[in-house]
Amino acid sequence: MDVEVTLYKPRPPTPPPVVSPDTIIVTGCGGISDDVLEMYFESRKKSGGGDVKSMERIEEDVVLVTFEDPEDVKRVLEKGSHKIQRKDVDVSRYKPRPPTPPPIVSPDTIVVTGCKDIILDVLEMYFESKKKSGGGDVKSTERIDEDVVLFTFEDPEDVEAVLQRSHQIQGVSLQVSQYTLPSRSARHRKQAATEELYLTAEEDEDEDEEEDDNSVFVILVQGLANTVTKETLTDFFENRRRNGGGEVEIVEIDRDSATALVYFVKGDVVRRVLQKAPLVLEKKTIEVSEYLPSKQPGLVTMDTVLKGEKEGTVVKVEKYGSKTSDEVLTMYFENKKRSGGSDVKKVIGDDQEHAKYVVFGTREEAEAVVAKRHHTVDGHKLLVSPYRPPTPPPPRPQYHDRFFITGLREKTTKKTLMKFLKHKLACHPKDLVYGEEPGSVLVNIEVTQGSLKLKKMERVCRKHPLEGAFLELSAVPVSNCIQVTGITASTSAETLQYYFESKRAGNAKELSVINVNTEDPRHAIVHFEDHSEFKRGRVNREDEPRPGRPVEVTNDQTSEAVRQLVVKDKRMKVSEMAKALEISEGSVHTILHDRLGKRKLSARWSVEWG
Q1: Which CATH superfamily is domain 398-477 in?
Q2: Do the beta carbons of residue 405 and residue 472 sit within 8 Å?
């Protein structure tokens, strides 16, 4: 195939665009809808902006925003940093692109394409043959791509001779042209164009600024090659220029899953690394993402979360989009023109119900939003209704001498955990009870000074991982239930409820049973409305709810008594324990196997057994 070759003629300089004092340019906004961007920059409180005149998305990641008032531009730029939907965006004043300089043609170098299947030695011999190619002595060769090779000749006149011919080697037609020198390296061209187009805001380089407690310090790396070492990962993620990284504290590699956890000293590093993705390590693309430790299911309901809010100031929002963030909802409901609302105090999410609760300052603001009826955000029609709190249940007190841990690594020894509790959390553990669920532990401590400072300990755990794991702590509520043993399959839940709500059970007053769960024919769990209504380890066995067999009740005090006996004497017989505690051997068996042996300490059991 014959190829026509001509010298390159540069284009005339591009005239600069018109500069507008009321326009900013926003970069890093890929994935954020124009509607969300407009709401953000119309929010004086969020961005410092005001009424938006127009918006133009000139690239997927670049948007021009023009304000009605040029003063809004000054306030937006003075604010410095901007975060939309948990994503940092760069905001700068729009300025003209400088004229593009004409390319510089290299007089002694040619570019050869279409040579993928031809080895370099054959190519070099061809272009050194004046008879075949018109060329001459070759000074250097460089294969810059699989199909592209640069040839530099000793004599620039050889280039002119080569360009005047068509070229074919081994039946393959080659495309030959004169090489144009780039003004900058290909690697920095995109960055240079961005710097010419935008006047970026000053970056905050204050290294001493305190990190937010909610910052993520860990990334999950997937798709690692088997040859990657901890040292390699450390060096790779400490390179800020190439990978956006920073100082690495810990690296943990799991060879079986080809993954690793990388812990940084500062939380802002994670954001920079994610912006550099995708990354390539040892010629293999790796995936990076935030690593968030799983949250233990809480004991607090949404009703208790909203308990302190003024009546009538909360609205429930449903049917929003999966990508609609709390920030977007806040901007929407603070925009009176769009929603009828005003200042939003906070937005609380309920993942189980897929609902958001928006809290306003006054009842009138919430009523105005509900009265508007039609609300659309991100293309989704919202279902907005007033929140009406139920009658609050009586408060459940919490133990001050114990707490629950989840997220512990299986390889972490008891000795290591005890050391962490003493030196990092400043508590004095008496003993540890490991749960059936992996990584769960109940910690009993000695309370020497005041109540349990759980929130302070949680903050420490978010900053200091234990052998690469961020521990999750939760309070242990006082039990409001008992376990009943010694019954038969014919004993109904109603019979047990009637029995325990009467004085026949040996109680000084009538109790209020709110639920009876029968786990198997010989066991039942009885929930009481008030945790303080039962205090003894067993009921009066002289009055049974049915003839034939006695019924015994085990609660925390009885279980603790059995556990203490086991601690004192591991060889103590069941019959001896039963005699010492004045309970049946069956109850001792139940406590040992069902409550101490199996150690069911999941979120459910922590509710039932404290």
Answers
A1: RRM (RNA recognition motif) domain (3.30.70.330)
A2: yes
